[in-house]
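Quick one: structure for this chain?
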Amino acid sequence: MSWLKNVPYEWAVGLRYTRAGRRSGRDSFISFIALTSMLGIALGVAALITVLSVMNGFQTVVRDRMLAVVAHIEIVDRAGVSPNWQELARFAERNPEVRGAAPFLDGQVLLTRGTTLRGVVMRGILPSEEPKVTDIVNTLKQGTLDVLQPGQFNVILGSELASALSVKVGDSVTMMATDGQSLQSRALPQLTQLNVAGVFSAGHFEFDSSLAYIHIQDAQTLFHQPAPSGVRLRIRDVLQAPEVARQLAADLPPSIYLRNWTQQNATWFAAVKTQKRMMFLILALIIAVAAFNLVSTLVMTVKDKQADIAILRTLGATPGSIMKIFVIQGAVVGLVGTVSGVLLGTLLALNIHTVIPFIERLLNVQFLNQSIYLITELPSELRWHDVGLIGGFAVLLAFVATLYPSWSAARVRPAQALRES
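Got it. Here's what it folds into:
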């Protein structure tokens, strides 16, 4: 440690106090407490980074599955129909961020088979254009989009919906139009036989259990609409959907309404954001407990080093220098613990797909049931913003924990300390 000779004495003494003492059992005990504080901070930081990365991974997986059937932006006329949808599509595609546009028509219906009844969103699409805006083709388990031919009233059901109705490809279901979608002024709702021609599975229960596809011309016939509801868009960067929607809305009349995928799923995103905040607060308490263990460590160090403090004061050290010594000691412990935790948490987050299967084999348990979560491995997405926030929070707590003990050390009276030593 000869390099200590070239640094200010406050740093030299502060760093020396962080090392394990060899003169007495008391020094070793204080160093042991400091080590446990350091380990506590490291484990807390690592746990927080890993958990937030896993939550980010889940959020990304759910978002991607959601966007397999949900367009990035929808342009609809407030009147409910868009007879000039081709013009809207051409206008939207002039924006360099827009990759594709396709018409759609949504309606609320009831599907029944036997005694089973389910509320469904019946979505009319144009099979040749739909792949431009969603990944529905990649979610098809049975059938293709080509089975949706005008006039045949074929339908593609979500996998959970098909299971609930106990139907398979080749069967038929009865569609009952409700509230305003009945045959004009007739009291009884319209009943139509639909042919199950395909099944899709997006891996998102809400859509798999309540969404069905039909050709847009058949949808117009069933819902008595002269034109599609509007146009759905796909853009290059899904995270820029709100901004692109604002750009398009600025050049459209007030009768045209735009909504992006974050607005359509606002409740889910709000719930995820709340969960992440709560998890951050709960796991941050682990870091806080470990960081404030430094208080007891430094208080014991100040009590044990009162003679050293008195000698330094008689040699001319100022109260500020004494305070700096113990701030350095606590900050070094906090910094080493934080860096260790960041390294450990980063390694775990980046290799969670390897670590979790190893733990499952070791303990003979299964953390993720594929039939429930619809995924086979734990997703993880490390975000450096989160890492920086967690690391900064841990270092700040460690620094705050040093203030009172350091202030107490600066108030030691040299004469009294030497008499009591």
